[in-house]
Design goal:
This is Cytochrome c oxidase subunit 5C. Belongs to the cytochrome c oxidase subunit 5C family. This protein is one of the nuclear-coded polypeptide chains of cytochrome c oxidase, the terminal oxidase in mitochondrial electron transport. The chain is mainly alpha-helical. Helices cover 62% and strands 0% of the residues. It has one helix and no strands. The longest helix has 39 residues. It starts with 15 loop residues before the first helix and ends in a 9-residue tail after the last helix.
Length: 63
């Protein structure tokens, strides 16, 4: 009977090169998102200080 001789995929251990490449890819993606977050925060702070210098806003409460 040939039915008992079906070729199955053999299970192998983790590929070290594949794991390293995936780690680098995920690390770069996370670093890019983190950097974009910081650029956005820096833009907000810069806009705040520009408005403060122009006198359009104040940090002192008006009485």
């Amino acid at each position: 009977m040939a039915a008992g001789r079906i070729a199955h995929a053999t299970l192998k251990g983790p590929s070290v090169v594949k794991e390293i490449c995936l780690g680098i890819a995920f690390g770069l993606a996370a670093a890019g998102l983190w950097k974009m977050h910081h650029w956005n925060e820096q833009r907000k702070v810069r806009a705040f200080y520009n408005l403060l210098e122009k006198g359009e806003i104040s940090v002192v409460a008006e009485e």
